[in-house]
Amino acid sequence: MKWIVALIPVLSLLAQQQLDPGLNKALEAHRAGRMEEAVREYRAFLKLKPQSIEANGNLGAALAAQGHFSDAITAYQSALKLAPSNPGITFNLALAYYKSGELPAAASELSTLRAMIGDEQRVILLLADTWLQMGENNRVIRLLTPIADKSPDDMGIAYVLGTALMRVNKAYEGQRYLDRILRNGDSAEARLLMGTSKVAASDFSGALADFQKAVQLNPKIPTLQAAYGQALMATGDTAGAAKAFEAELADNPNDFVSNLNLAVLKKQDQLYAEAAKLLDRALRLRPGDLGVRYQQATILLAENKIEPARLTLEAILKEAPKFTEAHVSLATVYYRLKRKADGDRERAIVQKLNAEEQEKQPRGETVRP
Questions:
Q1: Which structural domain, as residue segments, surrounds residue 101?
Q2: Does any domain span residue 201?
Q3: Which of 118, 153, 180 is the last residue of a domain?
Q4: Per-residue burial over 278-310, b = 16 or more CB atoms within 10 Å of its CB, e = otherwise
Q5: How many domains is the chain built from?
Q6: C-alpha 353 chain-centroid distance
Q7: Domain presence at residue 16
Q8: What pTM did the predictor assign?
Q9: Could you state, in chain order, the average pLDDT of each consecutive group of 10 residues for the chain (369 residues)?
Q10: Helix 53-65 to helix 69-82 angle, to the nearest 10 degrees?
Q11: Does 330 reside within a domain?
């Protein structure tokens, strides 16, 4: 979100440096923005003094500035082994995880940081947005609700909390935070929140209109194209949905919704290798996600990799025994393996689950003369 990007800068350790002649060249290059040179000099210094907290931390910062987040994470971890309770390095490590799409790891480090320093605003917002991207909406609500009314002008809190509330069908509560944003005039963020509320109410046509307006106002708002793509899928425009998901991933390759849904569309076009890559990334963002694992199983089935598909589906159903679609696919697997009794059992389970679902549907009253 744009507010979070502004509130969560990459923290620099430069101000913490002790004077050391061996670091001067690296520091000068770092301050001047010559990051490649700074990285070389930090690494050269660390060959002589590998126990330097400052050099390890600053190496991470220089690598992160170049977008080399995996290497930055390694450098920050080395620094934290030497200074386990350093808040600045812990924050930088969390931010590197966040930007590389390692969201569970980012959330873990941010939770550790909260225990160290308490509820500092930028830490709270980054943790909330991390949980939001992981689909942990109730955690976001519990985290931000106590501080939202204390910060009525903070649009970052209003946006993230409002989004989480809308996603769990708490439209009335979410509207309070939408109204805060609307006080500043119509915006892509407000339209995205309004559309999210309508999706929660299954009003996909209304949501589509809001998302289209948001795209006109600012197509680069994070998660907007993903939400737009979902609405397009729900209204039957799969080609338009694919373009929207691709647009989201061009700016935010770690968007879970876009990775998962674009994979589904690629699978429908029998582009199994491309779909598998997208699903791998989605599973990294939300480890263990049943929907992603189910899609992986259906690709295995489509490629006639029957035994891996069986193992995956059976594992899913151990965790979610009422996952109807997984039972359907597992029945197909068993029939292909000539295990008719097992296939028949799965079909019977599907019929039972469908009957239970039918019973839950509201019935109209009988009008008597």
A1: 1-118
A2: no
A3: 118
A4: bbebbbbbbeebebbbbbbbbbbbeeeeeeebb
A5: 2
A6: 31
A7: yes
A8: 0.75
A9: 34 46 81 91 91 91 91 94 92 92 93 91 92 93 91 86 90 85 84 85 88 93 92 94 96 93 97 97 92 97 96 97 96 96 97 89 49
A10: 160
A11: yes
